[in-house]
Amino acid sequence: xxxxxxxxxxVAVAPDRTGPDSEPxxxxxxxxxxxxxxxxxxxxxxxxxxxxxxxxxxxAAGIVMLPLPGPGWVxxxxxxxxxATEFVWAQLVLRWTKRKVTEAAQKxxxxxxxxxxxxxxxxxxxxxxxxxxxYLWKFGVVVPWKIQDQ
Length: 150
What we know:
By secondary structure, the chain is mainly alpha-helical. The protein is built from 5 helices and no strands. It has helices at residues 35-39, 41-65, 72-84, 88-108, 111-139. Helix 2 packs antiparallel against helix 3 (72-84) and helix 3 crosses helix 4 (88-108). The longest helix has 29 residues, at 111-139. The N and C termini lie far apart (99 Å).
């Protein structure tokens, strides 16, 4: 059967992918372990434990980097991506996160939101400038190396 045909009555049929060596059909969720690993239950379980431990170490390093210098959130999402190679729940969390980041990026590019953000930034800088001017007018500039002992 030609799947490119425009003839009425012809139906395109997807190949049956239910064999033992085939990948599961669907929306791409599930384990991405090699086939020889998936065939043996003990090997697949140890593979999953290894992926979990490596992902946990990366996520823990990202959590440590949140208060310390380093790309904490990037590393945490990297650990989630490692988990997503094996666990459906991590794949769903990453999909949700990608959708929310895309929505936030689209919202940030909206001209009204950009104008509002620029306006608020300018107002904030003006307030800081006025407060700094009042402070300098009242107390003046005293450099630390010119402070006299009292």
